[in-house]
Amino acid sequence: MLDAVADGRAEVLDEHRVGGPVVSAVRVAVASLGGTITMTSSRDDGQGVVPSLGAADLLRSVPALAQVEVEATTLATVPGASLGVDDLAGVLRWARDAVDAGAAGAVVVQGTDTIEETAYLLDLYWDRDEPLVVTGAMRAAQAPGADGPANLSAAVLTAAGATSRARGVLVVMADAVHAAVRVRKTRSSGPDVFRSPSSGPLGHVEEGSTFFTGPPSRDAPLAAGLPGALGRVPVLETYLGDEGELLRLVDGAGWDGVVVGGFGVGHVSAGLASVVEDVAARRPVVVASRTGSGPTYTSTYGFVGSEADLLRRGAVLAGWLDPRKARTLLACLAGAGATTAEVAEEFRRRGGRVQVSAVVRG
């Protein structure tokens, strides 16, 4: 029996163990933070769903998983939009304890609204070879075609697989396995909305096994631990006619840094470029591509407001990191007191490559 974690509860699924009696089973720890996958309604029409189910409730709805012993822990029962740094720090403590105690991997269930940010934040600090897998659902538990059980089943199988090791934090949705650093929620609704636009998924779950399209590859976790509070970092998406007024307001409010979602490969107007130069003298200004796919360039264009011009003005380019990932990284670095030079080095390293695809079966 696991000890209670934070204000939640832990339960080894004995008579409720997925797959029935287990012999020489691989052990996987599963924790729930809440989200749509846990939501139910007391209304006849099924509307107005709210978080209500715990981790053990979710696992009882999962189809049989042969040779997997599952431990269930409920850490929180909230929508994804209400998660905070303290929740994620709790996830890291729980997951590290679970794998250090012998679990082959850990699965975290949460709301899909923030998965692309929370999974990457966890990945920045996940310092174990065992996989930490994040999943959720797009349809509530009582909805026709609820996708939660299938997603949870695929996530547990992925966490149990030997070939999932040394890949950092993974996001498993609709039988696709994504790297936390690349995945995006690309549509507001529907059962299959998570994509990795720049690289494609790392693999898929097929017939009870996880197949990867390449060997393990990830950036090393940040040397410093998760700060008690992240830095104050907004994302400002540029637009036609943007002359930098919002960036000046952010600078005047004393924020710790800012991410600008630039046009194309990292372009802004001439007016905004001048403000970027002024602000970058005081705090990090990171420019990412607002397209959400593909990298920022460094030297192809040379006009005022181009990527090369912004580099000369002191901006940091996000590379392959989209604006949301860039904000997550910059907030973590700012919370740890990183200098602009240290920020630039981390973005050069973490934004400088994309994982590419040899099928590896797990």
From TrEMBL:
Organism: Microlunatus sagamiharensis
Active-site residues (renumbered): 36 (o-isoaspartyl threonine intermediate)
Gene3D superfamilies reported in the protein's UniProt record: 3.40.50.40, L-asparaginase, N-terminal domain (3.40.50.1170)
InterPro entries per the UniProt record, alphabetical: Asp/glu_Ase-like_sf (IPR036152), Asparaginase/glutaminase-like (IPR006034), Asparaginase_C (IPR040919), L-asparaginase_C (IPR027473), L-asparaginase_N (IPR027474), L-asparaginase_N_sf (IPR037152)
Pfam family, one: Asparaginase
Transmembrane stretches, start-end: none
Coiled coil ranges: none
Top-rank taxon, per record: Bacteria
Domain Asparaginase/glutaminase C-terminal: 232-347
Stated name of the protein: Asparaginase
Single annotated GO MF: asparaginase activity
Domain L-asparaginase N-terminal: 27-213
